[in-house]
Amino acid sequence: MGITRRELLGWMAAGAGAGTFLKKNAWAAGNHHFTGYPKSAGVLHDVTRCIGCRKCETACNRVNELPAPETSFDNLDVLKDRQWLSDSRLTVVNRYFPAGTNSPVYVKTQCNHCLEPACASACFVKALKKQPTGAVTYDESLCVGCRYCMIACPFEVPAYEYHKPLTPRVMKCTLCQPRLEKGQLPGCVEACPKEALTYGRRDELIRIARQRIDKYPGRYIRHIYGENEMGGTSWLYLAGHSFGALGMREDLGVASAPSLTAGALAVVPMVVSVGVVLLTGIHAISQRKDKVAREEQQEAVNRAREEAEETMARKLADQKRAADKEKEAAIKREVEKALAESARENQPGDPAGEAGGREG
Amino acid sequence: MVPLLIWFSSWTEGKGMLNGFFRGRRKYYVVAAFFLLVPVVLAAAVSNSASGESRVDMLEIELPDRTKMPAVTFLHDQHTGAMPDQGCETCHPQENGKYVFDYKKAGTLAYEAATAFYHDDCAGCHRKMASGGKEAGPRIGQCRECHVEETGFESAWKPIEFDRSLHFRHVNAEAITFKPEQYDQNCGACHHVYDEKLEKTVYRKGEEGSCRYCHLEQKKENTRSYREAAHDSCVNCHKGLSARGTKTGPVDCAGCHSAKGQAKIDTLKDVPRLKTKQPDAVLMAAWLDEAEKQDKLPDQLTFPVAFNHVGHEAAVGSCRQCHHASMDRCDKCHTSRGDKEGGFVSLETAMHSEKSAIGCIGCHEQVKEKADCAGCHDQMADKPFADRDCRQCHAVPPETLKPLPLDAETRREIARTVVAERRETPERVPDEKIPEKVKIDIMVDEYQAAEFPHRKIVHALAERTKENDLATAFHQKPETLCMGCHHNSPASLNPPRCASCHKVAGPQADGRPGLLGAYHGQCIGCHTKMNIEKPAATDCAACHKKRSVETR
Amino acid sequence: MEQTQAVFPVKGSIYTPFNIITGIILAVGLVLTVLRFTGGLAAVTNLDHHNPWGIWIGFDLLCGVALAAGGYTTSAATYIFGLKRYHSAVRPAILTAFLGYALVVLALHYDVGRPWRLPYPIFFSQGTSSLLFEVALCVFLYLSVLFIEFSPAAMEWLGLRRARQLVVRLVLALTIFGVILSTLHQSSLGALYLIAPSKLHPLWYSTYLALFFFISSMFAGLSMVIFESTLSHRFLHHKMDAEHLAESDGVALGFAKAASFIMIGYLFIQMIGLAVDNDWGYLATGWGAWYLLELIGFVALPAFVYAVGVREKNLRLIRWTAAWTVLGIIFNRLNISVIAFNWHLPSSMRYFPSLMEIGTTLFIVTIGVVTYRFIATRMPILYAHPDYHGEE
Fold it and tell me: Among B168, B162, B166, B192, which residue's Cα sits nearest to residue B178?
């Protein structure tokens, strides 16, 4: 199969062009910004109102039918240690003492139900989905247990039931999706006596948060955590101290997690299209190179043989000529010799002269 | 790196040098060792800093034009503490019987000379101490022991405020005298002004002001910085008195500038009024001077404020709280337009700024942050300036401003009269008008009804605010105190119940909390801000007992 | 000769040192398997909610896939670039790759919570937004490709001539498909970590992670072919035919040269990665020293030594450097998956593999070694089958 370099480049361009038609939208390169499903809900957590009573944890445990905790939720001494989310604790309250205050600050942590969740983007069986209600739900009937969602989540939220051999699940806050569908509030929101948690439409919550900051500017840091972090989350936070001092990462940036991988995914069809043509082309070129090399070699062999033959023929001709010449010279010599001999015999006293002469 | 080595290898080989540097297997070990050293060297470059011990005596020896080494942090108290038997003259020269608090006048030296001087002197003393068998500081050659970027110490230095109590103690001190034959008070011992003609500082009676009116944070021309001036005056005087055996103030850094040292300083509760020529009350309005000149009231005018000057004198730490740049009237520098002499701050901004503690409103906002006030005031939303009631302060009606002329004495009289009409002690709502207990049973579920001790709480609020003159001045009506909880409705002895506006169903779109959040938010919020430890916010049963499962 | 006797005793006794050791490892592995599936991951691993991926992903998956890259590099060199002198290296490389990927899938059965659902993302519910889907699909397809590419050797052993002829015709297409699949999944394994910039140390995290993994897989594969041919020469010498023995030095030299070039290129693209993110400041930290150790000690230096080895035709040096490079790849993959991952967490929360995890990994690798030995001693991998000699 012979193919020239020019043809190869042409095919590659065609392949690349075809590749561009394969994907639907140029999401990787565009300036699209998902601002959430319309009317999607969220929760506003006003950290200045939280008193660390852990009633939210109690309610969450009850509503989700989780196993009883090691220490009762009424025990507030546990707060002296950092509390972590786990497979049996979908939300935790933590106590912090930011610099410059004597009084503690309490913060409730749970899944933030991001607008563009890293976990849902990472899940390769679509077990985690962002619902129009705002919740990020988990389907345990699909989950394979690869735990890539745990790698992906920037807030380190999903927990895993490592102790279960055959039916382990990823465990995280579900925003009480079943309760939402019945028109009820999430368990924690309902239980909080200080109304530190407010459930509502996300855009409304942002408006309420800004209003609160304007009304009590001395009380709050002028920032709603979750408004833009990781592309925006459904769980929003207001606090009176910098969020970094409250165990919340401030270095996550505003790019959503899926936008970080969109580029790598978009390149896949390109690699396939260009790769097929490129590799086939290289193979074809290398084949052609071998073929041409073979042909050239053959040609060289033929030429060499021809030359050799020619030389042989010439040599032969020369030799023949030389041989002929020699033969002629020999004949001449013999004739001369014979003539000389006959002349000698034709002299007197040559009874055999007639015989010799006649014999010449 | 690698291409370089490759080039180097071929070059040496080409030159036949070192048997071609990379001939033989040894070359690989050398190269490998070199490359592996790089990370090790870099790892060693990782710096670590010492833990943070707090000190108050850190003095940075900052020389101008310093470029090479980090500045040295000199620990003053450490040195004085290490040589208790040696006096200040060890390091500080004396002039006119007073110490010059500059290390042997090194501050007058140029950079090169100063560096050499410090090096020789400091290290020399250390060497002497060490040879005497004592623990000493770094020697010459141990450069980075002194010249450190990060000392690892944390500064716990606190400024000391020369408040009215300290001032009075100095005024009253028998040991401090100033030309007793001429003056009956010792003001001149510290207070002075600069006489341009005589080109020196002199005492002028009646012109006493804060040191900081001239001695600013930074040195200016021939006026020393506040720090230099204060140390020179204060420490020298204390040193002199202490040498004579008189009980006097501190001479080391920690004595004034550490929290512990400041706690040891006696503070008088009731400081007698410092009598200079200040008014008891002031009638404040921007147009009054103009009116006096023209002998008529202008067409447009703001109601003047009758300012209780004597009352405010008792409430502030020192005169400088308001008279921050001079003892003059505010409008001497802060013009209506906001000119340069007022720092481009107009009179209106100066008086009304909510952020600055020097202005009226700003200072009052700060007072409201105290525990006794914050229980109610913290929960009140910020009001835009336009929504404030100006009449609270601008209350002097124009009728009282006749007859003209309004000269200074008349104005003071008017102001004094208006101030005198104000209540000095708050009026309280009679007990029979206050419900004693209120049963809150509207949302009984997990807990029983709460027995709210209504009257006890009102009494507690009244007790905690009765001594506060600001509170008394603004809580003119007795039912004003009720508005701490019965908010967002007019002051009344029969205010609406919480449930009238806060719904059981939950929060409303205008930001109003639901009833559950309202009760807990108001109660717990107030307790937290007023530093009331019992009942604890998380002690649910303290306010409402738990309901047993059967009775639910 | 003693080494081969250690593996293949002349007298035919089954109790060789090699068999005993591997036997013990396999037995322990079976016990661990039982523990894993009765007690869950918690019973066997040190994984927790902050460290969901341990060495079963970091080593078995990431290193396994990177080091199995010899399959596509060798077949690309031979069939696409037409470098016929590497022909004898193709079958061992394909076998290594096939076993490597098969063992990756085996390891996944241990690591994943519900291994019987592993086909779900491909056949049931495709999470196409996920790079792991990309990895799963390509690994699945590539394993099939490798199986088909390996099958002629088995078919020759089993005498299935016609089937073999059919498969042999597909070689070029399979190779191209294999190279593309390898490009995709090698890079996707790197791209997996793109989603977690807040967890991977900036010196290792880059938008070019996919490219770094792909390029490093190339010299990983080339080095692995050299390394594993070293091992084969030592233990399976008697199975090698003349063509194999004649070509093997050429394979080592050629692959070493290629690897050296690629590694220098890799160095440059790493520097571009640093420049683009302005990470130079991190080089002066402890992590920086670790990164430089990986980059200079395990990429730059071996690249240089490869070049020296090729120039001087020093095969011993090349073979040692191949092992060194393989170690470097393992170092790199472990850095990204468990060492520099979660670098911001306090040391009490960091992950270190449990003995049982290490035991399971050893078990899986041993299965691979034992299977390789089984196949290489019976099937025409290191030699050409006499019946088919001369045919492709």
Answer: B192
